[in-house]
């Protein structure tokens, strides 16, 4: 079931959600961008994609109605559907160049350019635990890599809520680059026991801990299934052999995508020393460690 989201919506006394107007297969109804605070200067979390005039118009309208301007921009991670709108916002809202644009650094650290920023716009880099304050809201940054190496979530202290970026989505399950760090990030999130999640895509979540636990359980179940297949088979297997068994019920056209997922699990299990890889003829094979 897909919940219908309005283009702009006041979701709490201090949070307004604005849809990025960039719907797609990977963005659900589009990226959520959040205006946070109650004063005449507010924090903007994530900026949608570039060249989305409808989004910029909605952002302008929300700020005008609130009698507010932007104090600072925070981006949960580098992906274009979260950072693409930055330069458009600076231009269209005539923000001074010294308005901060903050995020976590990439890992390994590397130079990052802001698309359309012509070198004038630069990122300000945050550390774990940094506090960003605005009237009516206190945000605490937490590094949660896994979906991307630079991913952060932001705790909204006043509501015991979390802006989860792409770590947790409002619907379905998220994709990740590195499963081991992703699982560690999910555990950090669940340990912080939030009440509400404001995700990067999809509707807000009110049973926050249950939702995060569901993500953890989903991945653990998959992992147990993979270990099971490897143990039962007893011989080294390629990732696609595992997919053909675990995803026998789904169409073969989905097997390539499933293989990416299975490989992520295998890499995690290998890092944890639970399985090992045999590299022969450029084919990666995994066998359980006894
Ligand atoms: Zn992303």
Characteristics of this structure?
2 domains; 31% helix; alpha/beta; 14 strands; 7 helices; binds zinc ion; Metallo-beta-lactamase, Chain A
Describe this structure in words.
The chain folds into 2 domains: 8-206, Ribonuclease Z/Hydroxyacylglutathione hydrolase-like (Metallo-beta-lactamase, Chain A); 216-288, Arc Repressor Mutant, subunit A (Orthogonal Bundle), CATH 1.10.10.10. Helices cover 31% and strands 24% of the residues. It has 7 helices and 14 strands. The N and C termini lie far apart (43 Å). Zinc ion (ZN) is lined by residues 77, 79, 147-148, 166.
Q: Unreliable segments (pLDDT under 50, ≥5 consecutive)?
A: none
Give the count of structural domains: 2
In CATH, the topology of the largest domain is named Metallo-beta-lactamase, Chain A
- Tally the beta strands: 14
Based on secondary structure, the structural category is: alpha/beta
Shape: elongated
What is the number of helical segments per DSSP (H or I, 4+ residues)?
A: 7
| Biggest sheet details | 7 strands, mixed
Strand order of the largest sheet: 1-2-3-4-5-6-7
Can you identify the CATH class of the largest domain?
Answer: Alpha Beta
The arrangement of helices and strands along the chain is EEEEHEHHEEEEEEHEHHHEE
Strand fraction: 15-25%
* Rg calc: 21 Å
């Amino acid at each position: 079931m897909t919940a219908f989201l309005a283009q702009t919506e006041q979701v709490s006394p201090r949070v307004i959600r604005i849809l990025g107007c960039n719907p797609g297969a990977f963005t659900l109804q589009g990226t959520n961008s959040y205006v946070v605070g109650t004063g005449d200067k507010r924090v903007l979390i994530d900026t949608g994609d570039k060249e989305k005039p409808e989004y910029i118009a909605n952002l302008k309208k929300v700020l005008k109605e609130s009698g507010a301007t932007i104090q600072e921009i925070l981006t949960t991670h580098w992906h274009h559907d979260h950072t693409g709108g930055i330069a458009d916002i600076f231009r269209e809202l005539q923000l001074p160049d010294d308005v901060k644009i903050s995020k976590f650094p990439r890992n390994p650290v590397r130079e990052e350019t802001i698309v359309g920023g012509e070198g004038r716009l630069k990122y300000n880099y945050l550390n774990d635990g940094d506090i960003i304050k605005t009237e009516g809201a206190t945000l605490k940054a937490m590094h949660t890599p896994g979906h991307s190496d630079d991913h952060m979530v932001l705790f909204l202290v006043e509501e015991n809520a979390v802006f989860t970026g792409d770590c947790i989505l409002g619907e379905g399950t998220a994709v990740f680059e590195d499963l081991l760090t992703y699982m560690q990030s999910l555990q950090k999130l669940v340990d912080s026991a939030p009440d509400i999640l404001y995700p990067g895509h999809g509707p807000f979540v009110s049973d926050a801990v249950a939702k995060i636990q569901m993500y953890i359980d989903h991945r653990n179940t998959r992992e147990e299934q993979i270990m099971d297949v490897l143990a039962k088979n007893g011989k080294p297997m390629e990732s696609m052999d595992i997919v053909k068994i675990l995803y026998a019920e789904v169409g073969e056209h989905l097997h390539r995508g499933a293989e990416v997922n299975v490989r992520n699990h295998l890499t995690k299990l290998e890092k944890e020393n639970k399985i090992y890889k045999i590299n022969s003829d450029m084919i990666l094979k995994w066998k359980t460690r006894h």
